[in-house]
Amino acid sequence: MHPRISVNNICFMLEPLATQLGYWPRLGVQRVSVLGPQLDGEGKAQVEAALTAGGLQLETVVHPFSSAHALDSSTQVLAEARERLAARIRSAQEVDRK
Predict the structure, then answer these.
(1) Rounded to the nearest 10 degrees, what angle do helices 42-54 and 75-96 cross at?
(2) Burial 65-91 (b: 16+ CB within 10 A, else e)
(3) pLDDT for the residue 44
(4) Is the Cβ–Cβ distance between 20 and 12 less than 8 Å?
(5) pLDDT: is 66 or 2 the higher one?
(6) How far is CA 6 from CA 61, 74, 82, in A?
(7) Pairing outcome for strands 6-8 and 57-62
């Protein structure tokens, strides 16, 4: 597969994370993308292990910014959404540094 192609796990989002991670080596990818919630809890360690084992690069993290509230929501709702996004960025940076 061409090195510029990145496979996004959103293509397999109905399958368990472990199954999704198993597709990466079979597809022969070098760059991958994950859904932000996949970096929560044990998922983060699973993604890190798959990246390390395959010598892969984390290309992007898809973050559902605010699906439950309109962007013109209250200041508090927007502050909470910003904090979730900031936490997701920190988590992605931690995975990418390994």
Answers:
(1) 40
(2) ebeeeeeeeeeeeeeebeeeeeebeeb
(3) 92
(4) yes
(5) 2
(6) 11, 36, 26
(7) unpaired
CB 31 within 8 Å of CB 3: yes
Q: Which residue has the tokens 């996949």?
A: 38
Sheet holding 57-62, edge to edge: 6-8, 31-35, 57-62
* Region of poorest pLDDT, from 13-17, 36-40, 70-74, 86-90: 70-74
Please report where in the chains the tokens 């044990």 appear, as a residue.
42
Please give the helix or strand (H or E) that residue 23 lies within, else none.
Answer: helix 17-27
Residue 47: its pLDDT value, please? Answer: 93
Cβ pair 88, 61 in contact under 8 A: yes
User: For residue 67, is pLDDT > 70?
Assistant: no
Tokens of 76: 């508090």
